[in-house]
User: Fold this.
Amino acid sequence: MSTLLSPLKIGIIGTGYAAQKRWRSLQTTPATQVVAIASHSLDRCLTLDPHHQAAHYDQWSALLQHRPLDLVIIANANHLHGIIAHAALTTGLHVVCEYPLALDIQLARELVALAQTQQRLLHVEHIELLGSLHQTVRQHLPSLGRPIYAQYTTLSPKQPVSRRWNYHHQEFGFPLMAALSRLNRFVDLFGEVAQVSCQAQFADIPDTPYYRACLCSAQLRFRQGLIATITYGKGEWFSGSERSLIIHGDRGSLSFQGNQGILTQGEQQTPLTLGSRRGVFAKDLQYIVDHLKADAPLYTTAAASCFALEVAQAASDSARLGKTIQLSRNR
Assistant:
């Protein structure tokens, strides 16, 4: 991988929030050059790139044929990620994909194997691991002793909800698969999950595949003994936002509400203030460039993302079947 010439020629598929963050980061990275952008609408391409610095395509398949091209960033609707990643790897391109890698765990595993066969980078973005919250938890986690219980809640209100792919059952995917960072954060901190139980509710829009709100709550039991509850909700059911994380150990606890946290050990409480979440896409990009240019290690692997996706699939199966799902040892 270190034989690539500079700058890296990059194509972006998608023009939404993540693609915009990628575009801005790439503009300030001399080692990269965006040469192509694809969206379902050429007008959306112009919104991202009004000065037409790159070629614009209204089909992702056309962008994959653009030359020269070293790497493609997949940042469009979730249900297309796996299909595009397979086509890009088969074409011989390096791939950076916003999570989830796929909405089908078997396809995700096949993509990891394909990348190894093709000797191409397959990187699944998990910027939650680079952010201040995760780094602060990692720093103080040893102070808690043996982790006993953890709870992570994110609720995002939206009034009204528009009929877009991120409120579409098939295109967004099961919410805890689509919002994979919630599960991946805990897997990174606490290791292998042994069993999953989950409940889910949706405010479906009649006679359509869309919904106005969703709520998922999953209970995980980790092999090391920790029990964790992860709750994710969004849409018209919620009038206020919430982002909270609590971890209890046998020697203390960590709790965060928004950007403020507290480390509690006995009667002693230490305030913790989180830094800004800005700049994490740029950090992720620098890891990618350093890996491709100098074989430097990445901060996460596609295989690790696949395991988090397997946990999410178990949550989906549990909600659908109404029973606890046992996971096999496979890490």
Q: What stands out?
A: Residues 129-276+310-326 form a domain with the Dihydrodipicolinate Reductase; domain 2 fold (CATH 3.30.360.10).
